[in-house]
Amino acid sequence: MALSRDLNFCFPVQELSNERVKMTPFNPSIHSSPFSAIASAHPELWAHMPAGPFQTAQDFDTDFLQAVVDPDPGMVLFAIIDKTKPSSAADADGELAGIMSYMNSSSANLCTEIGYIVILPPFQRTHVNSNAVGLLLQYALELPSQGGLGLRRVQWQCSSVNAPSIRAAERLGFTKEGVMKWHRVFHGGKDKGKVHSGRDFPRGSHGEQDYGRDTVILSHCWDDWEQGGRETIQTIMDRRNLHALTIVSSETVKFTWYLCLKETMEPKVPLYPWG
């Protein structure tokens, strides 16, 4: 779908959609109020991220969209629309379920990162996150002849103590590459509800309010995509549409049922897939 708004992003931007989820570029005049109405009551959503929490829609617009997103040509923010829900003020196709971005993108190096993922609590542990990430992976890694960007690398970063994020990335085909110690400083992190890495502060440190974060780096690259990643993502995105699944082998059936059981049996923990 062609877009009427100019976006400061280094790659072409378009709406991405399947039967259950739509990714549309975040429009503050439409999306900020309904997003903030829910997110402001859950500051823990930002616990592992350098930004947030934000108390009002105005804070979100000023301190995040205008200060972080808009000036960065390597970043674009999407609103996640759950198309299985009724039409809403946020979107005629469904309800606003959260936000997700491409970030740290480079047209010279043909790479991007999926980040700043905030799935609102009513939509956690549903089809929303896997379909949203899947749509971004498909657009990033498919060839231009197939409607994609033809990138070589998609990255995922998260706190080393954010186990749900690491599990989510690995389940979606990302491979852990390493850990960067003391990668981030959360200035005033203690008062903002950030999560510390658990390491002792440096000797003589005067900033024990400024928490530190070790960062896990994971990736899903073009060769991973071509060597089974594409099919893994599509299977995960389709897993609740049992009528749409085509049984091609006993291995496919076992893998599909494993994914369904895994999601059903895992505890209902807050999902912070990026930070």
Verbal overview:
The chain has 275 residues and is α+β, with helices and mostly antiparallel strands. It is 31% helix and 24% strand. It is built from seven helices and eight strands; from the N terminus they run E-E-H-H-E-E-E-H-E-H-E-H-E-H-H. Helix 3 (128-141) packs antiparallel against helix 6 (222-238). The protein is globular, with a radius of gyration of 19 Å. The relative contact order is 0.15. The model is unreliable at 241-273 (pLDDT under 50).
Spatial sequence of strands, sheet with the most strands: 1-2-3-4-5-6-8-7
What can be said about the biggest beta sheet? 8 strands, mixed
Quaternary state of the chains: single chain
Rg measurement, Å: 19 Å
Count of helix runs: 7
Tell how many strands the DSSP assignment holds: 8
Order of helices and strands: EEHHEEEHEHEHEHH
Overall pLDDT: 87
* Uncertain regions spanning at least 5 consecutive residues: 241-273
Q: Give the helix level as a range of percent.
A: 25-40%
Q: Shape, please? A: globular
Q: How much of the residues is beta strand, in percent?
A: 15-25%
Question: How far do the termini sit from each other?
Answer: 30 Å
- Please state the structural category: alpha+beta
